[in-house]
Write a structure and sequence with these properties.
332 residues, five-stranded parallel sheet, three-stranded antiparallel sheet, 14 helices, 8 strands, 39% helix, 9% strand, globular
């Protein structure tokens, strides 16, 4: 007997005409109005609005592993860590298979522009599997998503193991800016201060960031949730490896865990972890146009390069942290 389909319980409305005009100045290959979803008004392409209910109704398995995050928060780093720990440190298997094939990026097709420059290649570039064929994958399935927790299947946390990784939004906005250009969402000429303005006004896909973080933060003590900070991965990766291994019920020797920490060292990972097949990047080693950029915390200060911008960033953080006990770890 098929389980009854659940109606998506959140409102989906078009952004205002004025907002859509601003959004389309940057997201140029989209013709349909962008949408706001739910009481927090998450900003999405119209394609997500079409498929939100399908994603909400995905069947979760008990041995699924989901990695959830706001984009550019350390998702790729955590995906590799989790996959290796759960697969007996199979470095050869990891090297032979793109991360985009090891994890289903469920919502990715919903972000596709209405105006295609060329026919999409198989696997969409950023994923091979998505919400449409997740049910065909063998267990255990590995799932990646940037959809906020409240819009994911309601039984997710009570059924499967969920990782959430959070990062200081000031570092996120810098990396998100370069990601928008790398994936050709935005033209290369878009300046950081323009992007920051859109970020503050929640006129970028997936925004707003703080409700996204807080939806996961409130479940941080759930036995199936592991809430991690990018900053703690950077500061003490070895202890994060210990915690993740324990959470997954896996036991490894200190020597094996030290080798994993070395493998996951940011510079090493950039060299040996195959991530994307179809993204053309600038190979200049100093270029920002890379999928894995610098991996540093606190680097935002170099982009908020005027007193006014830094003050704005400070006020933005103060304003959004005042009603939550969520705090980002300091990294020396």
């Amino acid at each position: 007997m098929m389980a009854e389909r659940i109606k998506f319980p959140f409102e989906i409305n078009n952004v205002t005409e004025e907002e859509d005009k601003i959004v389309k100045k940057y997201y140029k290959r989209y013709t349909r109005p962008f949408v706001r979803v739910g009481p927090q008004g998450y900003c999405w392409m119209a394609g997500y609005g079409d498929k939100a209910e399908d994603i909400y109704n995905l069947k979760v398995r008990t041995d699924d592993i989901w990695v959830v995050s706001f984009p550019r928060s350390g998702t790729t780093w955590l995906q590799e860590l989790v996959w290796l720990l759960n697969n007996n440190l199979d470095y050869d298997g990891a090297a032979a298979t793109l991360l985009t094939k090891r994890y289903a990026f469920i919502e990715y097709p919903t972000q596709a522009p209405e105006i295609m420059k060329s026919p999409p290649s198989s696997g969409h570039g950023a994923t091979v599997y998505d919400y449409q064929d997740l049910h065909t994958l063998p267990s255990p399935r590995y799932v990646k998503t940037h959809v906020n927790l409240d819009f994911l299947p309601p039984k997710l946390l009570d059924t499967a193991k969920v990782f959430y990784v959070a990062r200081d939004p000031r570092d996120v906005v810098v990396s998100f800016h370069f990601m928008h250009k790398l994936f050709r969402y935005f033209d290369e000429g878009v300046q950081f201060n323009e992007f920051w303005d859109l970020f503050k006004r929640d006129l970028l896909m997936h925004m707003p960031i703080f409700p996204h973080l807080e939806e996961a933060w409130k479940h941080r003590d759930h036995p199936n949730m592991m809430f991690l900070f990018y900053e703690e991965m950077q500061k003490d990766l070895r202890s994060v490896i210990d915690r993740v291994a324990e959470f997954l019920g896996k036991a490894y020797s200190d020597e094996e865990k030290n080798k994993l920490a070395d493998h996951l060292n940011f510079d090493n990972m950039k060299k040996h972890t195959p991530i994307l097949e179809h993204v053309t990047t600038n190979d200049n080693k100093d270029s920002e146009m890379k999928f894995m950029r610098k991996g540093k915390s606190g680097n935002w200060i170099n982009y908020f390069d005027t007193e006014e911008l830094r003050r704005e960033a400070e006020l933005y953080m103060e304003e959004h942290l005042k009603n939550t006990d969520l705090r980002f770890p300091k990294v020396d």
